[in-house]
Amino acid sequence: MRLLVTGGAGFIGSNFILYWVKNHPEDQIVNFDALTYAGNLENLSSIENNPNYKFVKGNIVQSNEVDAVMAGVDTVVHFAAESHVDRSILGPQPFVLSNVLGTQVLLDVARKYSVKKFHHISTDEVFGELELGDPNKFNERTNYNPRSPYAASKAGSDHLVRSCFHTYNLPITITNCSNNFGPYQFPEKIIPLAITNLLEGKKIPIYGDGLYVRDWLYVEDHVRAIEAVLERGKVGETYLVGGLTEDIPNIEVARKIVRLLGKSDDDIEFVKDRPGHDRRYAVDWSKIKNDLGWEPQHDFDAWLEKTVEWYKKNQSWWRHVKGGEYQKYYEKQYQKS
Ligand code: NAD
Ligand code: DAU
Fold first, then answer.
1. Distance from the CA of 100 to the CA of which of 137, 153, 199, 312 falls in 20 to 30 A?
2. How far is residue 289's CA from residue 310's CA, in Å, rounded to a whole number?
3. Of all atoms in ligand 1, which is nearest to the CA of residue 84?
4. CATH of the domain at 270
5. Which-ligand-closest: CA of 181?
């Protein structure tokens, strides 16, 4: 099989490629990535000389660049996106460009080459927020209600992908996943931000009252879910993917990290809240379990500890990433109001 992976130099995309090369060594992979601030080829240095792996630098909004890599591809696995909610609040336009227009360009070229499968990676944020204490979780029938520019752009991309199935019979599948954590996550997201800040002697910034809730999934479980959909998923279907956590508030996640690093609760500071901050996410993953036999395997506490260890051992990776552009972003995002 020949796969075109978009956004393979980012967090989840690089974990996917490393997993796929190890578990499907006969397949050929082209990693197509624009190398934005979030793309990092260091993530893939262990396989850069593998004859079945090739990196091509390019932007999904450029039809000619996409056309040049799509010929001969069986399966598209589409990760490429602007992915950080806070950056979407500071400036929505790059999100519309990459996530909406970029997805449409990929769909058009995939149709031209009649690819056998187009798998779109999306997010549970398209469903909006749940209330604290609400027994309901998001499922495949939940109405879309995105509340940030990021979530709205991902919702737009989901609709475009689905419309391509209904209108043109393009063989698509979609996964909407909850919050991932694990190695190679860019330290703008809360878990790597918290770990690396503490390692630098800084505090963890917690938005608002800290009682916001996310559904945490170890990245390898997400990658295995995508594998299950690629291998056994039904064309045209959407599958929700979530983890094993039950409503852990952000402040508790921060306290766990503080304890793992031998710091104190004084190393946590409450800061100005995120505008439009979604209160709670929780995902019902029974469809993918019942239909495809997938379920999460990585316990949050054990794998949070391993993730902390990874960031302790790979300081050159994140210290390098936290230079330059990151500093400007951090100052703007966390400036005192
Ligand atoms: P990331 O920001 O770490 O990586 C995104 C990658 O896409 C980078 O390598 C970047 O260079 C590339 N990219 C961005 N715009 C591009 C463009 N126009 N052309 C080509 N490449 C481009 O993101 P991530 O956290 O790995 O997320 C990957 C996908 O998974 C995204 O679609 C995101 O919406 C989705 N997702 C993420 C999570 C999560 O918790 N991180 C959860 C659910 C869904
Ligand atoms: O739910 C899936 C989504 O998870 C993905 O689609 C997104 O790409 C990914 O970025 C993530 O979005 P979140 O906004 O949930 O992740 P983030 O790590 O930015 O924030 C997690 C929670 O922590 C959220 O409630 C906001 C809070 N937070 C975040 C940061 C960066 C803080 O309290 N302080 C912070 O500094």
1. 137
2. 29
3. 2
4. 3.90.25.10
5. 1
Please identify which of the residues 65, 129, 150, 221 carries the catalytic annotation: 150
- Rounded-to-integer distance, Cα 95 and Cα 99, Å: 5
Residue ranges in the chain whose pLDDT is less than 50: 337
| Burial class for 128, CB neighbours closer than 10 Å (0-12, 13-18, 19+) | buried
**Closest to 128 in 3D by CA, of 161, 155, 106, 105:** 155
* pLDDT at residue number 336: 66
| Residue 74 structure tokens | 């069986």
Is there a domain that residue 266 lies in?
yes
Is residue 98 located within the same domain as residue 138? yes
Query: For the CA atoms of 166, 32, 41, 79, what is the dihedral angle to 10 degrees?
Result: -10
Ligand 2 shell residues, CB under 6 Å: 83-86, 123-125, 178-179, 189-190, 193, 205-207, 212, 214, 250, 274, 281
Q: What is the pLDDT of residue 323?
A: 85
Half-sphere exposure of 69 (CA within 13 A, CB side): 25
Residues 141 and 120 in one domain: yes
Instruction: Identify the helix (H) or strand (E) that includes residue 57.
Output: strand 53-57
Q: 17: CA distance to ligand 2 center in Å? A: 23
CA of 199 to the centre of ligand 1 (A): 25
Annotate 58-85 with DSSP letters as a single string. --TT-HHHHHHHHTT-SEEEE--S---H
Give residue 38's Cα distance to chain centre: 11
- Per the structure, the complete domain to which residue 321 belongs is given by 190-213+245-276+301-333
Q: What's the pLDDT score for residue 245?
A: 92
Residue corresponding to tokens 């109001």: 337
Catalytic residue among 33, 65, 82, 125: 125
